[in-house]
Write a structure and sequence with these properties.
UDP-N-acetylmuramoyl-L-alanine:D-glutamate ligase, Protein-Tyrosine Phosphatase, Chain A, 6-stranded mixed β-sheet
């Protein structure tokens, strides 16, 4: 049974796993609300240091005494239920809640808009926040990555609208009570939690049913179309607003133009046509922008004003992010870790650098994901000239015997035996291999949601060290 958490007056809240992007965002919002926030994590990092600089006490390692005299303890899915702090709080009779319950409590304090979907929810959330900020609506928000223009993934202003990235990985999305929502797409992932694609789709239907307001959905996505059909068949009363390049979409996308300078399209909405131009790359980002624009209109922002704001959107950390150059080769980094995301960001790279050779670097994530989905990665690297695959990043999941990044290499070679694909077991091997392959004018795109974000800096450092020895 879900517990109702009263956040209407100052509480003492302890956040376990506070250094992660989702939990740190919750901590920041609670702190800015006026609650006394403490936290713990297993390692120190830049996020922890930032939280401390904002006045939150964070301990490294887990001990029972840190939950003494607190009112509420909240924890992330990655924290085991036998964690010493959870056990100590439970014995003391302290309220202990999963992050979904804490996020639901925050949502209850505002007109909350949830942005969900297997791919693109972080960027779409950031785009929506950017539009609302430009419209001077002063939204609060919780997003799972740093928005480059605000230098934060979270803020609490106390104003009417709260934008929340609604993560489906542990069912959090379906626990939220919302006044509006976006569903960018539905794809196969987190099978350890859901079991099947059908269950994933069902969870998004439940998510949509919990929304008291418009649910903006992509009419191009096959699983979303199935959800719409099932909702109609079952007589579910959900206020769907569709967008996409189909003639049946409520908000129609047409005349898409992807160049090395911009991504553009026309949008037909309520009988009027508008032109959208972004400095971000990829057709997928046009769709993300249209989703954000559609929801912003539902919130009272004029379409013209939303389009003007999006023209200045600067992006999100680790989403197609420039990380420097190495001997004339451009280094890019992206969070993409699922096949559809990888294909989309590689296509965006080819859009921005159409004549350059592309070296794609990928770190698979989570053993159970690769065990279930390795074959799904067979085709997504087709536009890359050289591919380097490293070993699986656990993300807190237990190792599974025989599950390594080599399964992805084998999947790629299974459909294209001539593809240049390297299996680099260690980070040192990866740095050495890519250093040898990169030439002036190349683009190196590193992808994954683990510690591969450190790779561009490691590549530059290794080159600098080699230069020093010469």
């Amino acid at each position: 049974m879900k517990r109702k958490i009263d956040l209407s007056h100052p509480r003492r809240v302890h956040v376990i796993g506070i250094g992660g992007p989702g939990m740190s965002a919750i901590a920041i919002v609670l702190h800015q609300m006026g609650h006394l926030v403490t936290g713990s994590d297993i390692r120190d990092n830049a996020t922890v240091q930032s939280l401390r600089s904002q006045g939150m006490a964070v301990s490294i390692g887990h001990t029972a005494d840190v939950v003494d005299n607190v009112d509420v303890v909240t924890y992330s899915t990655s924290v085991p239920l036998d964690n010493i702090e959870i056990l100590a709080a439970s014995r003391a009779g302290t309220t202990v809640v999963h992050r979904s319950e804490m996020l639901a409590a925050i949502c209850s304090l505002a007109r909350s808009i949830g942005v969900a979907g297997t791919h693109g929810k972080t960027t779409t959330s950031a785009m929506l926040v950017h539009i609302l900020l430009d419209a001077e609506m002063k939204p609060s928000y919780v997003i799972g990555a740093e928005v480059l223009q605000t230098r934060s993934g979270a803020s609490w202003t106390g104003e009417e609208v709260f934008v929340v990235e609604a993560d489906e990985s542990d069912g959090t999305h379906a626990a939220l009570s919302l006044r509006g929502a976006i569903i960018t797409n539905i794809d196969k992932d987190h099978l350890d939690y859901f079991g099947s694609l059908e269950e994933i789709r069902r969870s998004f239907t439940l998510f949509a049913q919990n929304v008291d307001g418009p649910v903006v959905v992509c009419h191009e996505d096959g699983q979303v179309l199935k959800m719409l059909s099932e909702a109609l068949t079952n007589g579910l009363e959900i206020n769907f607003v569709t967008y996409g390049a189909t003639t049946q979409a409520d908000v129609r996308v047409s005349n898409v133009a992807l160049t090395a300078m911009s991504s553009e399209c026309d949008i037909t909405l309520d009988g009027d046509m508008y032109h959208l131009s972004l400095s971000t790359f990829g057709r997928h980002n046009l769709l993300n922008a249209v989703a954000a624009l559609t929801m912003a209109q539902q919130l009272g922002v004029a379409v013209e004003d939303g389009i003007k704001a999006l023209a200045c959107f600067g992006g999100v950390e680790r989403r197609f992010q420039d990380r420097g150059t190495l001997n004339g080769a451009v280094l890019l980094d992206d969070y993409a870790h699922l096949p559809a995301e990888i294909a989309a960001v590689i296509a965006a790279t080819k859009q921005r650098f159409p004549e350059r050779r592309l070296v794609a670097v990928f770190q698979p994530n989570r053993y159970h994901r690769i065990a279930a989905m390795a074959q799904d990665y067979a085709d997504c690297f087709s536009e890359a000239d050289i591919v380097a695959i490293t070993d699986v990043y656990a993300s807190g999941t237990p190792r599974i015997a025989g599950i390594t990044g080599e399964l992805v290499v084998q999947a790629i070679h299974g459909v294209n035996s001539d593809k240049v694909v390297a299996w680099c077991r260690t980070r040192d091997e990866l740095v050495q291999y890519v250093s040898q392959q990169l030439k002036t004018g190349d683009v190196c795109l590193s992808m994954g949601c683990g510690d591969i974000e450190e790779f561009p800096d490691q590549l530059l450092k290794a080159h600098a060290a080699t230069g020093d020895k010469q």
